[in-house]
Amino acid sequence: MRLGSLIDATEAEGPGLRFVLWTQGCSLGCADCCNPHLWSAAGGEDWSQDALWERLSGARARHPGLEGLTLVGGEPFEQDAALATFCRRVREAGLTVMAFSGYTRAELKARDSKLLEEVDLLVDGRYEVERYTTSLRWIGSTNQTLHFLSLAYSPDDPRFTEPNHAEVRLDHRGLIQVVGFPFPKVREEFGPQSALARTTRHLPQAKQRGSA
Ligand code: SF4
């Protein structure tokens, strides 16, 4: 699997505490994508199934409340088979899977996606900047939809109507990570073009809603 980055636990990328993978590579090219550094399939680094499982297991040991895995990107469904295998193992271990995709659910079905079969929550559709919204939970533009693909979650769960939020994290190396909803102010302050990014070491991770 080719990954741009990952974090062990956050509450900003789906319901509950979640392990998050930013997959590397996206061919869709949405205008104003906030993760263009994840477009190239040659970027990031390779992770084996076992190495990633070990990382997830360690995260789960450190964060016993971990509820699931979230796939963002980049475009997770452009690494369909490998991520399907990993997500099957994740679900068998009792965790849920959420995925953000620039493809629509219909497109993923037409592609005969195996990964789609391993996803409990899907946010689908291209990011369309002219339809940008902050008011829909985990959705970046109004053409996108949050699909409940299994019984793991219910739309009645109050977490699906809470406001979007972002986390700004500073790790022990001084690296800044921005996780969660890419509000304009967050992109302005912490995005790759920000004054902060020009003066500090910076690890941009704000994800495009509905993209992966
Ligand atoms: S918004 Fe998502 S689907 Fe669109 S180009 Fe960016 S990473 Fe790809």
Structural summary, described in words:
The chain has about 210 residues and is α/β, with parallel strands linked by helices. It has one domain (about 1-165): Aldolase class I (TIM Barrel), CATH 3.20.20.70. Helix content is about 20%, strand content about 25%. It has five helices and ten strands, in the order βββαβαβαββββααβ. The protein has helices at about 50-60, 80-90, 105-110, 185-190, 195-200; strands at about 1-10, 15-25, 45, 65-70, 95-100, 120-125, 145-150, 165-170, 175-180, 200-205. It has a seven-stranded mixed sheet with strand order 3-1-2-4-5-6-7. Strands 8-9-10 form a three-stranded mixed sheet. The longest helix is centred in the N-terminal third of the chain and has 14 residues, at about 50-60. The protein is globular, with a radius of gyration of 16 Å.
**Structural domains: how many:** 1
List cofactors, ions and other ligands.
iron/sulfur cluster
User: What is the CATH architecture term?
Assistant: Alpha-Beta Barrel
**SSE-based structural type:** alpha/beta
Largest sheet: 7 strands, mixed
Low-confidence stretches: 198-212
CATH topology annotation: TIM Barrel
Strand order of the largest sheet: 3-1-2-4-5-6-7
Give the C-level CATH assignment: Alpha Beta
